Every structure is written in structure tokens, then in C-alpha cells.
TrEMBL record:
Residues 50-122 form the Carboxymuconolactone decarboxylase-like domain. Transmembrane segments: none annotated. This is Carboxymuconolactone decarboxylase. The lineage of its organism: Bacteria, Pseudomonadati, Pseudomonadota, Betaproteobacteria, Burkholderiales. It holds the Pfam family CMD. It comes from the Bacteria. It comes from Cupriavidus pauculus.
Length: 181
């Protein structure tokens, strides 16, 4: 499938995207196609890359962030993000089994399971969660900062999912099958 928008080579992307693309190149050893597509808008690229950086320095561990990402990607049927975040989750210390379970919103760890269930409820209910939903996160040990970061991870993944699905960005990570629905 061909992308619905241009996916420029980093050197031909808009000048305003060059600094972020150089940082992405340094972080990944290349520039993934998603970032190349987003580079058509320097503002969008700077927003996305800054959000990744900020959440990467947050209190939610990278492994949990990647588990949230695959659950959201699968729910939104984003093959690009599912593939990318499965690879990143493995790099963050998750087993293949843990990433496959997270893709379906499952985990043997009660705290991770609660975070995944909350993340998926956010997606499915478009943010309309209840007092009990938030209280459930507190009951398994999440503090308010962590709860806010779970929402931020979901929001960032909605952004990336929508970019990749809407623009049919070619997947440049090892493919992972979506769950059947």
C-alpha cells in the first residue's frame, strides 16, 4: 500500500523539521517512516517528538508505556504502532508473551492489568471514565502522577495511531498480527 501523503527522505523534509529529524536519527539509528510522514508539518513533528521525550522521562516505566501502546494500537487497528511498540517493548524488557498479552489488554501483573484496562476504557469510552475507574488504579498502587501519565500515553498513542492509519504509513518494523475482532 502506498502512503496517502508524502514520506520524505529526511534531507528533503521541511527545514523546520530538520532538528527533530536529526534527534530521531540519533535515537533510532535511522528515521522511521512515521516520523518522516509527520515531518511534513514541523509543528506536528516537534509536538510528537517532544511528547515521546517527555513521557520517556516520566514515572511510568518504559515497559508499561510500551504495553499500553500495543493495547491502544491493537484497539485502533494500527499495524504500524503495533509493530513498532512490540519491538520497543521487547527492548524495554518485556517478553514476547507479555507483549502479546498486552496487545489484548491482559497481564499477569495486577497493576499492569489495571493500567491496560483503564487505557482501553479511555479509548473505547472516548475519555468518559468513572470515579470507580480512577479509584481502581489507586487501589493497585498508582499515584496521581502515574494516572495522569497513563492518560498522556494513551493520548500520544492516539496521535500516532491516527497518523499511521489515516495516511497508510508503510510499516518499517517487523510485522505483528492484529488480534481478530
Amino acid at each position: 500500500m502506498t502512503a496517502r501523503i508524502s514520506v520524505p527522505e529526511p534531507q528533503t523534509a521541511p527545514a523546520g523539521s530538520q532538528a527533530a529529524l536529526a534527534q530521531i536519527q540519533s535515537a533510532f539509528g535511522g528515521v522511521p517512516q512515521m516520523f518522516r510522514a509527520v515531518s511534513n508539518s514541523p509543528a506536528a513533528l516537534q509536538s510528537m517528538w517532544a511528547a515521546f521525550g517527555a513521557l520517556g522521562g516520566g514515572v511510568i516505566p518504559a515497559k508499561l508505556g510500551e504495553q499500553i501502546a500495543v493495547a491502544v494500537a491493537d484497539r485502533n487497528r494500527c499495524e504500524y504502532c503495533l509493530a513498532a511498540h512490540t519491538a520497543l517493548g521487547r527492548k524495554a524488557g518485556a517478553s514476547a508473551e507479555q507483549m502479546a498479552a498486552a496487545q489484548s489488554g491482559q497481564s499477569d501483573d495486577p497493576k499492569t492489568a489495571a493500567a491496560l484496562a483503564f487505557a482501553l476504557k479511555l479509548v473505547e469510552a472516548r475519555g468518559q471514565v468513572s470515579d470507580a475507574d480512577v479509584a481502581g488504579l489507586r487501589e493497585v498502587g498508582f499515584n496521581e502522577g502515574e494516572i495522569v501519565e497513563i492518560v498522556a500515553h494513551v493520548a500520544l498513542n492516539l496521535f500516532t495511531n491516527y497518523i499511521n492509519v489515516a495516511f497508510a504509513v508503510p510499516v518499517d518494523f517487523p510485522a505483528v498480527a492484529l488480534t481478530a475482532r
